[in-house]
Write a structure and sequence with these properties.
heterodimer, A: Rossmann fold, 2 domains, 6-stranded mixed β-sheet, B: about 300 residues, alpha+beta, 11 helices, 5 strands
Chain lengths: ~290, ~300
Amino acid sequence: MTAALETHGLGKRYGSQWALRECTLEIPRGSVTALVGPNGAGKTTLLRLAVGLTRPSAGSVRVLGLDPHADAAEALPRVGFLAQEHPLYGGFTVEEMLRVGRELNPGWDDDAARARIAELDLPLKKKVRSLSGGQRAQVALTLALAKRPELLLLDEPVASLDPLARREFLQSVLEAVAEREMTVVLSSHIVADLERVCDHLVILATGRTQLAGSIEDIVASHRVLTGPRDGAEDVTRMHEVVRESHAERQTTLLVRANGHLYDSRWTVHELDLEEIVLAYLGQDAARRRQAVAS
Amino acid sequence: MIWLSWRLQRTETLVVLGVLVLLTAWLVPTGLNMWDAYQHNSLGACIVHAAPRCDVAIGLFRERFGGISSLASWFNLIPGLIGVLLAVPLVSDLENGTYRLAWTQSITRRRWLLGKVGLPVVAALLAAGGMIALFSWWRTPTAHLDGRLDSGVFDTTGTVMLGYTVFALGLALALGVVWRRTVAALAVGFVAYFAARIMVDFKVRDHLVGAVHATWRGRPPASFTNAKVLNMIATIHGHRVISGGGFLGGGVKFQAPNFKNAIFHAVYQPESHFWPLQLTETALFLGLGILLIAFAAWRVLRTD
């Protein structure tokens, strides 16, 4: 079975600026993947490329085995997309928005859409313009879900929401995944939210993929080592060092371990996901500072 | 898609209908008055027989309705107004980012665009058709008196309004697709429409179809009646006594005794050129409009 989303050397350039560069990743079907990275890392660009809103400048992207641009007629009904600003027609009532979904999607599930709106206590006759940010996000999500997509792409879906609306929104996504086989990719820079919802993680930084895999594997393979200053080389030979810091007599290494770490000279600590993500983003920031300085 | 395009164009369509209703409310009573005066004084018969009492009747008619007639030249703005207004749904979709919503449903961009452009084009043509019908009826008495080449009549009858409306729509669409700002595209589109119209009215129209060159002494040729004179020279014994252009040729003008020996040279568009001129100008504006719409569509399909 083909991957839900697969990219090879994918790049997008606007003028002379690369918004995304050399991005190669594979997101398995049935996963709920968090796409993490600082602002400007190319998360939005990647998702837009996946749904065919944008065309690649380099490399290739395939969703459910299809080219989102060339095979748009076939791919679009199977991919749901929620843009960051939750675009909806402000002058339409909630009911009219549902009609938009029905008119534009052959696979539209009207009963499910109405049930969701009723469950959320959203007023059908009210204009979208007069809804709160959280309600608008829910209407937009309803539209994306009632299309019954195999792959759902959510671009910073909770960024503009208050903590309560954020929690409710992510809960809705979780429920939808539980109900039906569906792959979800959601981008965010709020790691704490994602851990509850996602089982896979992609870290995108400076427009390149830094790390991709299941959250379980990622947490299991990252360790902090503290030990003698002169012993670092043995570790770097075997394992990938994400971050290192040196004090007078001791060295602290954050490594992605290849296999087990057997070395009595080092003390080993575990980390949580947020610490790992921050380490990667910190590494990226340092690299960017270097690039600016040189 | 048709429902969505219609729903998003509803307000603009209602505004256009409102404009047409206002126009009708003004044109019908004034038009009835004009027809009434025209028939009451049997002006139709006057034109054919040119009886002496007719000059007075025609003069009175002109005096009474001349003001209204020239007021009606403001109606040249209406096709532009309607055209740019109908571009609003597409441009505001781009401005507000709601096109991303439409493009990530199950329909392709091409189908979306077809509804988004097709519907305003149809609406523009229908509105123009309605205006043509209305103005043609309203203008008939004046057209009988002064011919149909006077720009007040020419601009509002025939087929040119179809071209004008589609041209204005194309202008606003092309500007809007590039700028993605509705108000700016509308304002500049409207000004550009008006500039193009003035340009064509004063500089281009007279040369769209080859003009007639004629030389005569005494009685002018029949085709000179109600012709649009581009240039005319009259000489008596080699001395130039008249030179000029930009007026309508009349059957009785320049037949005064002191012009008896004058030789006239004139370049003019005879009234029989009405349809060739109309169709050429319609094709010109319609063609430009279609080009602009095609450009807008191409830009939208290429949007990243």
